[in-house]
Amino acid sequence: MGLDKTVASAAEAVADIPDGASLAVGGFGLCGIPGTLIDALWQRGVDDLRVVSNNCGVDDWGLGLLLAAGRISRMTSSYVGENKEFARQYLSGELEVELVPQGTLAERLRAGGTGVPAFYTPAGTGTQVGEGGLPWRHAADGSVAVASPAKETRDFGGRPYLLEHGITTDFALVRATIGDRHGNLVFRSSARNFNPLAAMAGRITVAEVDHLVEPGELDPDEVHLPGVFVQRVVKVSPGDPAAERRIERRTVRQEGGA
In Å, how far from its chain's centre is CA 179? Predict the structure, then answer.
């Protein structure tokens, strides 16, 4: 593979993602999600995906599209409260869910991306996160079919810590504001949440970018994620509805209100 990592379309960028693949997907809520790549994957009909992402979109957008189509078999997330279909599939036993404290999830992705196999953290000690028993999958009758195992615990300085494992995935899908042909990426404001970490965790990382620039145009101090972590770059087409930036919860002042 040459230094020019650009591909012609989102469809081409995800063409080799197979059924059963594991995916790390960037973004937070609906902010900074790789909507074009998700839509291309949805149109391909890829099934049995094991996804690691902070959340699973909403019912009709982002990862919620794959979920509604029954394409996701397992989610590793920290927050899932905005998706009713997610709750339905989880409680009916159609979807396996590993809930992870948000900071722990971020560090597991970062650790996997930097080659750290495991680390200790105090987050979750004294709870089912550490002691085990969190429902990962329900049976059709509502009983717990698969529960989380207990985690190894060690004391450091008189305080208990849990052993957490780094996460690596087959592929990663991320969205950046600016990218160059070498895969160096710049994220905008809160869209940076989880995107660099997801990109680091993927063995093959695909980035959709709003603006594609030539190598050398980015000041090295501006780069949030170096191109060594990115294998493919695709420019988002202007006006592509899949790339729309949605507001998850629109809050406005009522006209005439105090």
Answer: 19
How far is C-alpha 231 from the geometric centre of its chain's CA atoms?
17
Query: For the whole prediction, is pTM greater than 0.85?
Result: yes
Residue 40's SS3 state is helix
Would you list the DSSP string of 193-247? SSHHHHHHHEEEEEEEEEEEE-TTSS-GGG-SB-GGG-SEEEEPPTT-GGG----
- What is the spatial distance between Cα 43 and Cα 10, in angstroms, rounded to a whole number? 11
Q: Using CB atoms within 10 A of its CB, is residue 146 exposed (0-12), middle (13-18) or buried (19+)?
A: middle
Tens of pLDDT, residues 4-44:
999 999 999 999 999 999 999 999 888 899 999 999 999 99
Handedness of CA 123, 126, 130, 135 (dihedral sign): negative
Q: Are 176 and 189 in contact (CB under 8 A)?
A: no
Evaluate whether 73 touches 99 at the Cβ level (below 8 Å): no
Coil, strand or helix: which one is 41?
Answer: helix
Task: Write the pLDDT tens digit of every residue in 142-182.
Answer: 899 999 999 999 999 999 999 999 999 999 999 999 999 99
Largest CA distance in the chain: 60
In the chain, the amino acid numbered 236 is V
End-to-end CA distance of the chain: 60
| Residue with the two structure tokens 């159609």 | 94
Question: H/E element holding 89?
Answer: helix 84-92
Local structure of 106: helix, strand or coil: helix
Q: Are 35 and 242 in contact (CB under 8 A)?
A: yes
Nearest to 223 by CA among 155, 176, 190, 162: 176
Question: In DSSP terms, which residues pair with 209 in a beta bridge?
Answer: 176, 235
Give the Cα separation of 73 and 137 in Å (integer): 10
